[in-house]
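We keep the chain:
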Amino acid sequence: MRIATWNVNSIRSRQEHLLRWLAAAQPDVLGLQETKVEDGLFPQAAIEAAGYETAISGQKSYNGVALLSRLPLEDVRIGFAALLPGDQEAEQLGEQKRVISACVEGVRILNLYVPNGSDLKSDKYNYKLAWLNCLNRYLTVQRQQGEPLCMMGDFNIALEDIDLANPSRHNGGIMASAPERQALRACIGTDLEDAFRLFETEAGHWSWWDYRSGAWDRDQGWRIDHIYISEELQQRAMGCMIHKSERGELKPSDHAPVSIDIGDGAEEEDNF
């Protein structure tokens, strides 16, 4: 099963990019972030015509997440409140559409769009830290479900210095500050692993290039789009890649898709 994540930065602006990439990369499941469209205006018919069913949670002009799948999407959950009933902060944070999950072939796929945070001195930064703390509470409940977990999305955090093209300039700033990194590490815990780093340990790999300052032309990017997998999936992981070429297309998203290939557990056991 190929599972992928992509911040498309407006589904309506990137619809043709998306349909072309679906046909070329053939993901079984794709999590989208920053769809930037209300549910009624999501291009559901075109995506279904490409062979994918959808689960969407959108809002006008901002945020928005979706799951596309060639396999049945079961037990769809939207927002933190789905697992945190009675948690007032979870309800409030749910006003921004950033969380959606579903079970696919027995794997819980959690698709996230983590707030950017804007600036270390802004209210948006405090909102981001509160959001990550709520995610940690959410994951505590999710872990109790006993499902293999694939948590993916645009995390808006470069977790390590090697995830930055220019760490001396950006380390400690927004998306690379110690509190953000600590909050994300608390969510990851001891059971989830960064799928990309299971296969690639060197620097020089980015998933986001700012539209400004010629970042793409100079290859000055950040690796902020991640896939984290639980132990059972780590044993079945066959590869993880950043589809960098998508960022070089005409009028692209500023993010590239990231995908992981998960082998079938039963088939792998038969090979031993």
About this structure: The chain has eight helices and twelve strands. The mean pLDDT is 96. The radius of gyration is 17 Å.
